[in-house]
Design a protein that fits this description.
Blueprint lengths: L1 E7 L6 E6 L3 E5 L5 H8 L2 H6 L8 H10 L1 H8 L3 E6 L5 E8 L8 E6 L8 H15 L5 E6 L4 H9 L3 E7 L6 E8 L4
Length: 187
């Protein structure tokens, strides 16, 4: 696994690459990713476990990227990043760290298009993000939130070494979410 901070000058998808794994590149989202964001945010898993964010058009997707991840990169030095297949540069999901006001530590988030589930890409990218959190950001704790019926996410979080610590309610919503955390050994 490599942590790199360089522009990826791929002719179709030029971006700032943050992490490379054996099969994936993890890079900053840009407005060039808007069509992919529309597809991901309207996929069945996203709608079921995260909810409808009202992102239906290219303008909506650009707004989502610019007002969320892009601001987070500048403010926090991290955010949700696009995960792409290394050999084709096709975007398949997002994975990264999010700073939420109602959580004491940054949390890891991930979502993938359904056709790429079951191939280990979520685990591979999440391991990369957790290594980045430990070795570059030097975060002592990372949290995660998920629905209690999202068995795929829970399985992945437990594989990463997260522990369940309680329930939390997202501000403005009634449904309780599982709160997990992982203490990181900083090398």
């Amino acid at each position: 696994m490599k942590f790199i901070f360089r522009p990826n000058l791929h002719p179709i998808h030029p971006v700032m690459t943050i992490i490379e794994t054996s099969r994936l590149t993890i890079s900053e989202l840009t407005t060039a990713d808007a069509p992919f964001i529309i597809e991901l945010l309207n996929s069945p898993g996203w709608l079921q476990y995260i909810g409808d964010r009202g992102v239906k058009t290219i303008d909506d997707a650009c707004g989502y990227i610019l007002n969320g991840p892009t601001i987070s990169y500048r403010t926090n030095g991290f955010g949700l990043w696009v995960v792409a297949l290394k050999d084709t540069n096709i975007p398949i999901g997002i994975c990264g760290l999010i700073r939420r006001d109602f959580l004491p530590h940054p949390d890891i988030g991930f979502a993938f298009l359904p056709q790429y589930s079951g191939s280990g890409y979520a685990l591979e990218s999440a391991k990369g993000v957790m290594d980045f959190a430990a070795n570059v950001l030097r975060l002592p704790v990372v949290t995660a939130i998920t629905n209690d019926d999202n068995t795929s996410s829970l399985k992945l979080l437990f594989k990463l070494g997260f522990d369940f610590i309680g329930m939390v309610t997202y501000p403005g919503e009634d449904k309780e979410l599982m709160l997990l955390e992982k203490h990181i050994t900083i090398r």
